[in-house]
Amino acid sequence: MAFDLAKLDDLTASHDEGVWVDLKDLGAGEPLGVSVKIAGPDSKVCQKAAATLADRRIAMQNEGLTLTAEHGIALSIGFLADITLDIRHLPDRAEAGDPAAWVPGVISGGKVVPFSRELARSLYTNRMIREQVDKVAASRAPFARRSA
User: Fold this and answer.
1) 97-103, long-range: CB within 8 Å, 24+ apart, which pairs?
2) Is residue 14 situated within a structural domain?
3) Gap between the Cα atoms of 124 and 108, Å rounded
């Protein structure tokens, strides 16, 4: 079977479209009712975010900063926020399996907060959430389109 170069374009397109990551309470194993949509590692968004991450590291080093674990976490949060395409939540008593039940944004203080990079950053300050999203972002498998 011959390899078709057009498949590479299809792969890149699926990375640009992104995937939804349904967040869980890892302690209880229960869904949080919040999902984030992230771009894949081969997407244009991710390539730009990786370049921004490298620029941030270089700038820190040029300022004479020794990169610490705290710097690494801050850089990771920034990178994940940069590759986040959307955030949605599931209202109380809605069915998670029903795509129409999901609502844009998240609830904070009883109000819906729409998607923004700052909202993404605030979500990723939570290590449990950051690690779940980072695990998906680091793999190409979730972004691969399945053949019909």
Assistant:
1) 102/35
2) no
3) 15
Residue 91: inside a domain, yes or no?
yes
Task: Confirm whether 22 is domain-assigned.
Answer: no
How many separate domains does the chain show? 1
pLDDT tens-place values along the chain, 148 residues long: 677 777 766 777 889 999 999 999 988 888 899 999 999 999 999 999 999 999 999 999 999 988 899 999 999 999 999 999 999 998 877 776 777 788 899 988 889 999 999 999 999 999 999 999 999 999 999 998 754 4
Question: Can you list the pairs that 124-132 forms with residues at least 24 positions away whose Cβ atoms lie under 8 Å?
Answer: 124/76, 124/77, 124/80, 124/81, 125/77, 128/25, 128/26, 128/27, 129/23, 130/76, 130/77, 130/80, 132/21, 132/23, 132/24, 132/26
Domain span including residue 131: 33-139
CB atoms within 10 A of CB 139: 12
Q: Would you state the pLDDT for residue 1?
A: 67
Residue 111 lies in a domain: yes
